[in-house]
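Dear Dr. H.,

I hope your travels went smoothly. While you were away I took the liberty of generating a structure for the chain from your last submission, since the lab meeting agenda had it listed for discussion. I wanted you to have the full record in hand beforehand rather than looking at slides cold. The sequence, exactly as received, is reproduced here:
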Amino acid sequence: MNATEQRNRFLAFAFASADLLLEVSSDGTVTFALGASHPLSVADATLLVGRSVLDFVAPRDAGLVRHLIKTVTTGQRFGPLRVESANDDGPDQIMLSGCRFPGNDGIICFTLSYEAHTGPAVATVERDDHTGLIEPQGFEEVAQEAIRSAKDAGQDIKLSLFSFEGQEAFASRVNSEVAEEFLGQTGAILRAESYGDAAGLQSDGKYAILHSSDAQLDDITDRLQEISKSLDPDKEGVRVESGSIEIDADMSSKDAAGALAFAVKQFASGDNAAIGAEGLSRSLESLMKDTGARMTRFRSALSNGQLGFMQQPIVDLKSEKLHHYEVLVRFEENKSPFQMIRFAEETGMVMELDDIILKQAIAYLSQLGKKSQVKLAVNVSGRSLSSTRFISNLYRAMSKVEFPRSNLMLEITESSIIEDLDQANRVIQKIRKLGHHVCLDDFGAGAASFQYLRALTVDYIKIDGAYVRTALKRRREAMLLKAIAGLAHDLDIGTIAESIETKDQSAMLLKLGIDQGQGYLFGRPEPLNLPQESGKAA
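The corresponding predicted structure, in token form, is as follows:
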């Protein structure tokens, strides 16, 4: 093969996955350009020669590109990484890959693509302004994309966690510009080493990345520490503790991402019971093993018909007549399901639980027939409303209802934060349009309650029992209940109070304007024989 044929084959190979090829010198200057440059508002690629490659990258990602130019070694590849474009008229984001040019250490080869080569999550995820790293709430979805991509490519990847000790003391010794430089370089190092740009800020001084299994954790840790020392006038810097674990190849990408997210949340929260004194790697390994076992037990309970169902009455406070029942789930007899449900929410498995309970409630009401007056309220996690698959299954199940639609209400629980309120409201309004009522559960328990009430149009709110338990003793709680009831009535929203145990509580709540009540005064949870169906859920 002659040189021309070899060159043409290499060019064809490069253009199969990129739109623009650049050769860049060690100072960032473009020395050669070939391909489509018009998305960068340059008519001819040759006009890029002599300009800085940083001209095409938004300021937030400039530190990442500078870091790549400075640190990539001969034969080492990087990317694909998503960087924001500096050109308002061009593509919003550019996929950037490259390597140090073999045979010429002074040249780096960059490939730019204007079409996405990674999943939608990494394209739309919120990023920290200081580091460019993914914000905590978006890390799980990006991790799932990265894990799926790695499995498809046959690539072994790891999760690594980094904890910075002494960061506050370091920040007190340097000015704001130096502190900003440190955060920028930290983000650049972690993004450059990540797989699929899955590098996230978890909390102050705590970071998580997915990376190829051949990446050297000690080298990354040393570089982070050295940067802090080089910027510190006292040369102390920060101490970086790190640990890593390989992703279980037998787990699905969804389960692996859920388990990782659970582990990372424990790490970010500083839960010493989860991340112990034996070091991050050992603790992470133990935590992942335990999480995987809990996920297996949870899914087994769903698929083998091991769930228990209870019903508890909700009554009209004025007449004390039954209005409807709430369906409650039990994993173990006489034991609260709270911890299991929170675990399911944090690992993403709650959609499967919600899907099963909803379908079984529909089957139960269908068996009772069109003339039945029995009404059920079924809980749906706020997290489930962010799952397109769950929403699709929800619409499909509800489209086949053959009993009065007012017999089935959905209670949206607030224990898991609803991130996309606009999408959640679209789902809720479609459900309401079908004829089902929707209740916002746990109202007042979380900081987002009034934000939800502003964004979500619902038929009822269920007020958290903590208000009811203290309202007779504290006037402040009573006045808050009265204000909530007044606001709800002005919005044409019904009110339900839970945890009512005495007649005095019931009388007080009625006087304050609450419409309905739930609690031991009106009835304890009793067994409900929903039809158990084994098999896979959503």
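Two observations you may find useful: The chain has a mean pLDDT of 87. The longest strand covers residues 157-165.

With kind regards,
E. W.
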